[in-house]
Amino acid sequence: MVAIRTRPLLIGLTALLVLVALATLTTGPVEMSYRQVLTLLLRPDSQDTGTLIIWQIRLPRLLLAIQVGALLALCGTLIQGLFRNPLAEPGLIGVSSGATLMVVIVLVLLANLPSYLPPGLRPFLLPTVAFVGGVVATRLVMLIGRGANHSPLRLILAGVAFNLMAGAGIGLCAYLSTNEQLRTLTFWSLGSFSAAHWTATAITAAVLVVVATFAFRQYRPLNALLLGESECRHLGFDVPRLQRRIIYLSAAGVGAAVAFTGIIGFIGLVVPHIVRLLVGPDHRKVIPLSMVMGALLMLGADWLAKVVLSPAELPVGIVTSLLGGPFFIYLIHRQRSTLT
């Protein structure tokens, strides 16, 4: 396949993202025209109900969807680059499960913990514990899967094992939860942007800026790692240090996404693979393109979630799973020679 030029592709995806964003702002229980949306964005009127809908409901949701999509795609790119395997993604190697388990423990077993924190620190509680859970999970998976020069199959199997154990812990917490907590966990586990607010958007934006800035600086060692760990060392890069950086960056990104939106799968798996098919394996190109395409696909999935069963709303995690599941099967089919 001939690689597509990066700059035209990036411009085209960005333009399409803007168009989808405008379409998303017009969609909902209260239908609005594009002219109304643009008017309310440029000249908000505090006395107008439409201004409240756009600025307090739809715009935070729109921005959170873009940021979470970019984060998940970026983390998927880093994980696939670290493990040198297109089947690797934050969900498969335990990052998402570890972050989810920690959030569930706080929501169910430590439900009173937020009341002991100052009000200014409470919004940071879930992202912090999710980050810790993601780091611990990934480190455990790498320790379990260590051997045979970090065989991709061994690492993925270790991730599957950890996911099963984390699933058992999440199930136990669900069993011990109250009816109200169980309902909250059920809808949260399906993934949704319906509870988006400006605080979550601001925190996620800050995490995205930090993770993206440090991630882009790793494109040279990630490119060298494509040749193998020994070759990467011979080129002067510290592989263990690179692994730690990728783990922390991925855990921070996935942690912020999981904490505010629940479990949304397959974005981190599908997007980096598509981008590599289009522009090649150079992470200098793959990282920014994956972020834009991840934001675009997530926003498109959220738009579908709102219109498929309108006026009811489908959890966005179901939409991404329906889209990503067949693609994952396709990847397994392509990688059958590697897995055997």
Descriptive overview:
The chain has one domain (67-339): Orthogonal Bundle (ABC transporter involved in vitamin B12 uptake, BtuC). Helices cover 74% and strands 0% of the residues. The chain has helices spanning 6-26, 34-42, 49-83, 95-108, 125-144, 152-176, 179-190, 198-216, 219-225, 229-234, 239-261, 267-279, 283-307, 316-334, 336-339. The radius of gyration is 20 Å and the shape is globular.
Secondary structure elements and pairings:
Layout: H1 6-26, H2 34-42, H3 49-83, H4 95-108, H5 125-144, H6 152-176, H7 179-190, H8 198-216, H9 219-225, H10 229-234, H11 239-261, H12 267-279, H13 283-307, H14 316-334, H15 336-339
Helix pairs in contact: 1-13, 2-3, 3-8, 3-11, 3-12, 3-13, 4-5, 4-6, 4-11, 5-6, 5-11, 8-11, 12-13, 13-14
Question: How many domains make up the 3D coordinates?
Answer: 1
Work out the strand percent: under 5%
Oligomer: single chain
Element order, helices and strands?
HHHHHHHHHHHHHHH
For CATH, the homologous superfamily is named as ABC transporter involved in vitamin B12 uptake, BtuC
How much is the radius of gyration in Å? 20 Å
In CATH, the architecture is Orthogonal Bundle
Major beta-sheet overview: none
Fill in the CATH topology.
ABC transporter involved in vitamin B12 uptake, BtuC
Q: Provide the low-confidence segments as ranges.
A: none
What is the CATH class? Answer: Mainly Alpha
- State the end-to-end distance: 25 Å
